[in-house]
Amino acid sequence: MAGLRYSVKVYVLNGEEEWNNLGTGQISSTYDEQFQGMSLLVRSDSDGSVILRSQIPPDRPYGKYQETLIVWYEAENQGLVLKFQDPAGCQDIWKEICQVQGKDPSIQTTVNISDEPEEDFNEMSVISNTVLLPDCELNTLDQIADIVTSVLSSPITDRERLAEILKNEAYIPKLLQLFHTCENLENTEGLHHLYEIIKGILFLNKACLFEIMFSDECIMDVVGCLEYDPALDQPKRHRDFLTNDAKFKEVIPITNSELRQKIHQTYRLQYIHDILFPVPSIFEDNFLSTLTTFIFSNKAEIVSMLQKDHKFLYEVFAQLKDETTHDDRRCELLFFFKELCSFSQALQPQSKDTLFETLTQLGVLPALKIVMIRDDLQVRSAAAVICAYLVEYSPSRIREFIISEAHVCKDSDLFINVIIKQMICDTDPELGGAVHLMVVLHTLLDPRNMLTTPEKSERSEFLHFFYKHCMHKFTEPLLAATSEHNCDIAGYDKSKNCPNDNQTAQLLALILELLTFCIQHHTFYIRSYILNKDLLRKALILMNSKHTHLILCVLRFMRRMICLNDEAYNNYIIKGNLFEPVVNALLDNGTRYNMLNSAILELFEYIRVENIKSLVSHIVEKFYNTLESIEYVQTFKGLKIKYEKERDRQSQIQKNLHSVLRNIVVFRGTIEEVGLEEEICFMEDAGEAVMPPLEDDDEFMETKRTQEGEAVMPPLEDDDKFTETKRTHQEGEAVMPPLEDDDEFMETKRTQEHEDKVDSPKRTSSGDFKFSSSYSACAAIGTGSPSGSSVVRLVDHPDDEEEKEEDKEDETSPKKKPHLSS
């Protein structure tokens, strides 16, 4: 085979471990007199000079890779690569090398790996993975496409090497020249290869390559290559759209040519990103990250250039605020400003601050206020989007502007009330503008982004302002839709005219969602408003709506209220019997297992799990007879169990209390006698048998019998002594009846002062005595007593026994609620 010549490229590894192209020439294997053996000789195609002369020693390791590469090391860090244009030529030269070394040509390396040092084998591996591109010609497009595609799944070093070759060898312009050739020849196969090549280069994710591809000279050809997707029957005409259909409008003439060029480039890049690669896979998304960053950087540069041109921005706002500006012109200005706000998201925080300060000085908020009340839907929608951008970035500055208006505007002209009005009056069937404006209100009302300083609290200041000047405007649609003129909750008649049209239902749902948010974050303000306006009762009227999503919004509104476990809300719900519409909705839903069913059951289940006692009692007493038939969940049985446990616990507490009070010494007569008995109890507890002298033994025996539990009747009402004592207790007078023995009175008084401030019993209007104690007589006898006040009857009247029996019946048999209307 000596004398055969094949076209080959020669690469050498330099000292910086970079591959240098020595040139292209013809290779042959010949006997070399200088080496006294076979050698590889490569002569240049251009001038016939010798590019490479390399001896083939019998012990040098060679390797053949990718069917077109032969690699070896001649010295340390001096690697050589032969890149063949024809795989057949590579195979022939490989056979010559194997023949000289006595190896089988079917092997990939001419040396046994186990016989070589590890570092030599690693060097061979590095050379074998070298990325080399063939000449950029029509007949090599398939090889180029294979290399570019395969490198995407290779280590990052291979992608770096390929990017370096594409940049340094001006490969991309050569590929784009071939694109024009293929189009002129209608070479469909070549165009499909070019699509794969350009797409692969984009996925290399290298900014240095993007600078070349997206330059004014190359970008349209790149778009042209991407038109020929092999998966499409016919190519897409993206260039026609960008050239003829896409029109660039200068709302204000742009004199900066660099700015204009940057705007054109960014638009085309965004088109490539969004249209040509619309839905990248999870893998391709990372490949396009640098393209996204490139676009992001372009947008930031555009905003910075515009921000520096104060004359340009001043003219934009002047025309926006001018009442004589035509609606079409105003719409164009707003769309420009909308794009500017969108691009500003690419700015760093400090640059955003500067931009917002500039816009504020130019009067952006008054300008928005003017355009938001225009009749043109496009103008209002664009203004809503711009407002959302501004509020999202600096809600505190917007709040400051809103509050400052209160001194110069009436409520209906406030900027925030203009926003609310536009939200309510949105004519879009899908309420696109209303959704944007609801986001604005949500951000403004979110306490988490409100500032608090030692000087002032933005939260209290703004919320006070909003609930005073704006809340009635915001809830107006809800109150109007649920007024008595339209719906009546008492009858809960579905024939009533509750809002059933889709647009109104969507608006009410938005309002309820924001009110639900307010319940969570505006505890005091929203609670006062709800209770004063009876808002939950009115919202529950919407349970009649045919729109399930609106009913679910009402349930979320009520659920958020309940989850606060606020007794003010709980009492409001109980007194208003506001669970009735919810129960009726559950019954009307029947056996259907849907979102409504789950939401209502979850509401009751939450009450059961959290054991909200007041609500548990109310639900069981009012609705258990109606709901006990629902057995596919254990919620209502669980509520009944909770209710009965609580009732038994309260009953046991009452029994313990009565048991304790029966052991308390019942006193008769005046306060002096009460003090005397307290002294006795105190002395007995101290282990001393000291009794004060008594003048009347009979009276002492009677007192003793009273201590032993005998029922002693108190004196009748006409007893002067008792009446005087009663008047003393009721009127709070420090009046004591005369005592026969002053010494005994002083002894009793000293005993009382020695006690731990035991309060004397007070007579109630019903003839009972009320004890208020922290350390009472029951503590002295070793029995427990609940803290606070308790009432014990000292006289067992027959009428009282009848009342007790009636109370007992009421306690054991809760009042039954008539069957609810279904």
List the helices and strands and how they pair.
Elements: E1 6-13, E2 19-32, E3 37-44, E4 50-55, E5 62-65, E6 69-75, E7 78-84, H1 87-101, H2 118-128, H3 141-151, H4 156-168, H5 171-185, H6 188-203, H7 207-213, H8 219-225, H9 238-245, H10 257-276, H11 284-287, H12 289-308, H13 310-321, H14 327-343, H15 349-362, H16 364-371, H17 377-393, H18 395-405, H19 415-424, H20 432-444, H21 458-469, H22 471-474, H23 476-481, H24 502-521, H25 523-533, H26 535-540, H27 548-563, H28 567-575, H29 580-589, H30 595-610, H31 613-627, H32 635-662, H33 671-685, H34 697-707, H35 720-731, H36 742-754, E8 762-763, E9 769-773, H37 777-780, E10 788-792, H38 798-812
Antiparallel strand pairs: 1-2, 1-7, 2-3, 3-4, 5-6, 6-7, 8-9, 9-10
